[in-house]
Design a protein that fits this description.
- It is a single chain.
- The protein is an all-alpha fold.
- It has a domain of 68 residues.
- Helix content is 59%, strand content 0%.
- The chain is built from 3 helices and no strands.
- The longest helix has 38 residues.
- The N and C termini lie far apart (77 Å).
- The model has no long low-confidence stretch (mean pLDDT 86).
């Protein structure tokens, strides 16, 4: 057992993996800030236009997939390194539609106005 531990500690590949984990951990923190920025911008779009920006939604999907790939790598779920060692994650074919509660129904002119 001691021999295996010594071998692992001296292994260049183990230390290289640790280095990549640290670097991807930093990339994860940056990606979190990007997501926060996207959330703020999408809230503003939703407030002013009634729906989120679709281009930003697609970009957010790519960022979400990148974060997932980082988590898969740093938790040893996979040995495949995320971007830039792979292509940037493509957004899914169909990015979700805005929630139904974001769409305001058109007022019915014939409907009675409720008293408060």
């Amino acid at each position: 057992m001691d021999q295996l531990v010594k071998q692992n500690i001296k292994s260049d590949s183990q230390w290289l993996r640790v280095l990549f984990i640290v670097l991807y951990g930093i990339a994860y923190q940056v990606a979190e800030l990007v997501v926060l920025f996207i959330v703020i911008i999408q809230i503003l779009f939703s407030l002013f236009t009634g729906e989120p920006n679709q281009k930003l939604t697609q970009f957010a999907d790519g960022v979400n997939r990148f974060i997932f790939q980082i988590l898969q790598f740093i938790t040893y779920k996979t040995d495949e390194k995320p971007f830039p060692f792979q292509d940037w994650p493509e957004p899914s074919a169909q990015v979700g539609k805005p929630s139904a509660h974001l769409k305001q129904p058109a007022p019915d002119e014939d409907a009675p106005i409720a008293n408060k």
